[in-house]
Amino acid sequence: MRYLLLDSGNCRKLEQVGDIRLVRPALNAFWQPSLPASDWENVSGIFSRDSGGGGTWEWKEKVPESWQIEWGGLQFIVKPTGFGHLGFFAEQHENWEWLRKTVSVMGAKPKTLNLFAYSGASSLSMAQGGAEVFHLDSSKGMNDWARNNLQINSTIPDSIHWVTEDVLKYAARETRRAKKYNGIVLDPPSFGRGAQGQIWKMENDLIKLMNSCRDLIDRSSKHFILLSCHSPGFTPVILERIIADVFEKGTFESGEMTVPEKSGRKLPAGTFARYMGKW
Ligand SMILES: C[S@@+](CC[C@H](N)C(=O)[O-])C[C@H]1O[C@@H](n2cnc3c(N)ncnc32)[C@H](O)[C@@H]1O
User: Fold this and answer.
1) What CATH class does 90-277 carry?
2) 90-123, pLDDT tens digit by residue?
3) Domain 3-78 falls in which CATH fold?
4) Which of 105, 98, 144, 152 is closest to 125 using CA atoms?
5) Minimal CB count within 10 Å: which of 19, 98, 181, 248?
């Protein structure tokens, strides 16, 4: 059972998530939907965001607590959360493909770090490409979810170490221990909390974290950084400049993350920048 973005418009998106059809917010979908209103009404659940940043699901029929889908070359356990998330960010699919390819040409088993690793799609993609992966998230629940995702992707090698910790605390300790990685993936939220309640704020903390990443990257051989986010104001060029500030020489690419729509158009959702050094 696959994922398919059926339509978007009026700041919402209509998604086929395996057998289940859902409507969720798509805050930049300022255009008109292409499918008729009846398609948008014939759904199992609708998530609406409230002014406090949370929101509620309105269920029109009972759906399973969780189910399984395929997207971007991976199997996912899908669970509607109170935050309106399902456990995967469909717009990351091109980054997963890029990670698979990139780690597969880096030579002897590269060692990579996935920060803010969520349900593990980037970690699984890097393991698929042949990397030894350190997967870090502050939420034990998310790390359990990611491990379960690895279990249902039975062809992916179990070359992932699971770390439940605050990102800045881990980066500082690894730097003290002079640990080195060949690639680092970061998908920071605007606001988050570490494993002991530490506050993560993108505007205050991203530069600090990028400086630690410079210390953690082995710059003597091929290395990479993939930075993505959904935070307003962090455009592709801004992400590129943030990386370029700490990694002077190398090649950069950046852009918007998008989800292909059934109509052939694309729904933009967030931005990314990729850096490759000594390539
Ligand atoms: C995948 S990222 C955000 C994804 C997306 N860019 C967004 O803005 O919605 C969210 C993950 O970061 C984790 N996280 C938040 N603050 C953290 C921190 N201080 N240290 C480690 N992980 C953190 C959360 O548990 C969550 O799984």
Assistant:
1) alpha beta
2) 999 999 999 999 999 998 999 999 999 999 999 9
3) Immunoglobulin-like (2.60.40)
4) 98
5) 248
